[in-house]
Automatic annotation (TrEMBL):
The keyword Cytoplasm applies. CDD domains: SET_SMYD4. Keywords: Cytoplasm, Metal-binding, Methyltransferase, Nucleus, S-adenosyl-L-methionine, Transferase, Zinc, Zinc-finger. Protein-lysine N-methyltransferase. Monomethylates PRMT5, modulating its transcriptional activity. May also act as a histone methyltransferase. Plays a critical role in cardiac development. Acts as a key epigenetic regulator of gene expression during cardiac development via its dual activities as a methyltransferase and negative regulator of HDAC1. This is Protein-lysine N-methyltransferase SMYD4. It is found in: Cytoplasm; Nucleus. InterPro entries: SET-MYND_domain_protein, SET_dom, SET_dom_sf, SMYD4_SET, TPR-like_helical_dom_sf, Znf_MYND. Coiled coil: none annotated. Residues 194-536 form the SET domain. GO terms for biological process: heart looping; methylation.
């Protein structure tokens, strides 16, 4: 949840309405962030703090042995059905809830070790056994752990011998995974490639422009977030699919299976010692998060969840920057030295790339564009957080004037008069994030564990601020592709990064660990072209009028990108269009002659008319919408049937729906593509690979029409097609489609993505 909870929004809105007109006018007239914050701070009362305390009770992050026991019971149930992934996640939740003095902690560790053993994570199993013993596992049960420990050592010794054998080339199998996994060059460099420079104009602000030709697929920049916050929410975790869905799936929050610092996905989370919410992939991430922000966030965990992700991220930005960097950034603005891109400071917090607070501070906050009521909500929220933080303990070390840090005796008495700037910084970042926050998205598997064909969708797992990525302006038809990576060391994704970057300073040429974003050219970019990416509204998913409205509401600009300008010109000069072009874009067919339908006028309620003059049959908007809704309902029912392991019933419904949709939908319509994709899944579940491939090819036609023939969406669909051909033994068809998939995925995702490794394995087996 990005914004504060609805109850807090309503509370502040009521407070705004109750303000005296003169005070409202005074607040509205304020033009500086500092003044807005100080005014908000002066208006926060004890009842506001009490209200937040009351609402945050719903987001309790306290340790609780009873909740830990309930998680352990759920884990036991999943373990009995051999759903070991879900069991491990339940036990991990129990570990996070369990107080350090509770027996539940050792029991959850011991039970998790059992799931890890069955998942063949033997070293991790041994680690959990040690944790269980360390935390007082009952002595009369220790023999179980010792037996499991012995089995782990046996498996590890066999595995080690296998690794030695694998070093013999003669023992390598046909998958070729060792080659695909091995790095070809050194660690990834964070920064901008030499073919691009930072430019600045009054109209566009700071932005990136190509100075040399950039080929499609080349890496333009790689960036790490200055800070990020994991999104609490539901994410599907697929277990073993049982008959009729009795053990079909278990839902866990994203926060239950990802490190709260580097976002890496893991079953073996390390809990915060003090709260039940924050958890990490390792003690290293745990300690780094503690030193950077969690030391101060921990006591405010429930309050921050009630205040929303944007408020928490704004606080993290301020805590990480500290008073010194905040004042340096502010001074650079006052001295009008905004163009600091050649700064070679060895301080990574102030250098140009790889964690620049100066770049973050420079982001536009659009204070005067936000409505007075929204400004008021942000100001009161920042002020309330500041007061809660001041009452929780001494001020953060990063905001202390003294090298030794503040007086550790605690209380708000240690908060001197100048520390209101921390609250002002939080307010500035809240306002900035409304226009500059970046969603971190990853591909999530949406198919059953035993599904023969990959099925996935993009989900948002975190919100972040990327100092360098934030330089890119928007286009509804961007010339770049973004790929996010989480956890570990990310290997280089192309030759573009093998050369020295301009600037060449060793300070920011470091290994990219944790969260990274890689931006690649999605098409040929010629010298002088601006580097652009999409802020959300994309020309392939949304009509021009709706895109422009959303961009104006959130980002305060009227989009004049190539797609918007061209489509606006088409509206103003309809005679230049090919006959029926607009109807083909709609993907709707006349039920009488199968000609394409087009809008009767720009009026949304006007309905449609056949583009063929010999027919000119009209259909009302309601008739078309009713037909589409009926198709969508049947599609949803069919998908649900497949998820409950009833593909035969799903296929019968899909065949009926395809006959119905063929009367009104062209092959290029997105809904027709979804139907074809679902039908392919149903056939694949029944083992009819040829029929599955035939329908997936139809789906690929719709995707190519919607997203383009060079899109990553088409690449992923063709990847599924390659899987179907491979599973069906269609050697020629599979070898024919694999090069197309490889080119598209390499273009958008780089040559080391896991889909390409699977393609290589399929290709080697087919050719061998």
């Amino acid at each position: 949840m990005d914004l504060p909870c609805v109850q807090w929004q309503d509370h502040v809105a009521q407070k705004w309405r109750a303000l005296e007109p003169k005070l409202k006018e005074q607040f509205t007239s304020l033009l500086e962030i500092d003044d807005v914050f100080r005014c908000g701070l002066s208006l926060v009362r004890q009842d506001d703090l009490d209200f937040l305390q009351q609402e945050s009770a719903a987001y309790s992050v306290q340790k609780d042995a009873e909740l830990a026991a309930k998680c352990r019971v759920r884990g036991n149930s999943s373990f009995k059905t051999k759903n070991y992934t879900a069991a491990a996640l339940h036990y991990s939740k129990g570990i996070c809830f369990a107080p350090s003095t509770s027996e539940q902690l050792s029991l959850c560790y011991a039970n998790r070790s059992a799931t890890l053993y069955h998942l063949q994570h033997y070293q991790e199993c041994l680690d959990d056994i040690d944790r269980a013993v360390k935390n007082g596992y009952p002595s009369h049960l220790l023999h179980k752990l010792e037996d499991r420990r012995t089995l782990c050592f046996k498996h590890l010794s066999v595995h080690e011998k296998g690794r030695e054998d694998d070093q013999n080339p003669a023992s390598n199998d046909c998958k070729g995974s060792d080659t695909a996994n091995s790095p070809s060059v050194g660690p990834l460099t964070v920064g901008i490639c030499p073919q691009v420079v930072v430019d600045s104009t009054v109209e566009k602000g700071r932005h990136l422009v190509a100075v040399n030709r950039i080929a499609a697929g080349e890496v333009i920049l790689t960036d790490r977030p200055y800070s990020c916050v994991l999104l609490p929410g539901m994410e599907e975790v697929k277990g073993k699919v049982g008959r009729y869905g009795r053990e079909r799936e278990v839902l866990f929050g994203v926060e239950d299976r990802r490190c709260h610092r580097c976002l890496t996905e893991t079953l073996i989370l390390v809990p915060c010692d003090r709260c039940s919410y924050s958890r990490y992939c390792s003690t290293g991430c745990q300690q780094e998060a503690w030193e950077e922000h969690h030391r101060w966030e921990c006591a405010l965990g429930a309050d921050l969840m009630a205040m929303g992700v944007m408020s928490q991220l704004a606080l993290r930005l301020a805590l990480k920057a500290g008073l010194k960097n905040f004042l340096l950034a502010r001074e650079s603005i006052r001295d009008k030295h905004k163009e600091c891109f050649n700064n070679h400071s060895s301080d990574p917090s102030t250098s140009s790339y790889g964690g620049s607070y100066l770049n973050v501070y420079n982001l536009l906050h659009h204070l005067n564009h936000h409505s007075p009521a929204l400004r008021f909500m942000c100001a009161v929220t920042a002020a309330t957080l500041y007061l809660k933080l001041s009452k929780a303990g001494p001020p953060p070390v990063s905001w202390s004037h003294t090298p030794q840090g503040p007086n550790k005796e605690g209380g708000d008495a240690d908060w001197n008069a100048e520390l209101w700037m921390l609250g002002s910084a939080v307010l500035q970042h809240i306002l900035q994030l409304r226009c500059n926050a970046q969603a971190i998205v990853v591909l999530q598997d949406t198919g059953a564990t035993n599904s023969p064909v990959q099925s996935n969708r993009e989900i948002r797992i975190a919100t972040a601020v990327f100092p360098t990525l934030s330089l890119l302006n928007h286009s509804c038809c961007p010339n770049t592709s973004l790929v996010f990576s989480t956890g570990g060391i990310i290997e280089p994704s192309g030759s573009a990064l093998s050369a020295d970057f301009s600037g060449g300073e060793a300070e920011w040429r470091h290994k990219a660990q944790g969260v990274t974003v890689t931006v690649r050219a999605a098409k040929l970019i010629t010298p002088g072209q601006e580097i652009l990416h999409c802020y959300g509204p994309h020309s392939s998913r949304m009509v021009t009028q709706e895109r422009r409205r959303l961009l104006q509401e959130q980002y305060y600009f009227l989009c004049q990108c190539e797609a918007c300008s061209q489509q606006q010109q088409d509206v103003e000069e309809p005679r230049q269009q090919e006959p029926g072009a607009e109807g083909r874009d709609l993907g709707l067919l006349c039920i009488k002659c199968k000609g394409s339908l087009k809008k009767r006028s720009e009026d949304r309620e006007a309905g449609f008319v056949c583009s063929r003059s010999s027919c000119s049959h009209c259909m009302s908007l309601s008739d078309v919408n009713n037909s589409l809704q009926e198709i969508r309902v049947n599609l949803e029912k069919a998908v649900e049937l497949m998820e409950t392991d009833r593909p035969g019933e799903a296929l019968r419904l899909l065949k009926k729906t395809l006959c119905q949709s063929g009367l009104i939908l062209a092959e290029t319509h997105p809904l027709q593509g979804e139907l074809a994709d679902a039908t392919a899944r149903a056939y694949a579940s029944l083992g009819d690979w040829n029929s599955a491939a035939s329908h997936l090819e139809r789906s690929a036609v719709a995707i190519a029409s919607q997203f383009g023939k060079e899109s990553v969406e088409l690449g992923r669909q063709l990847f599924k097609l390659a899987q179907l051909h491979f599973n069906g033994g269609s050697r020629g068809a599979a070898l024919s489609v694999i090069p197309k998939v490889r080119r598209l995925l390499c273009l958008h995702c780089g040559p080391h993505c896991h889909e390409l490794q699977e393609l290589k394995a399929m290709e080697d087996c087919l050719q061998g």
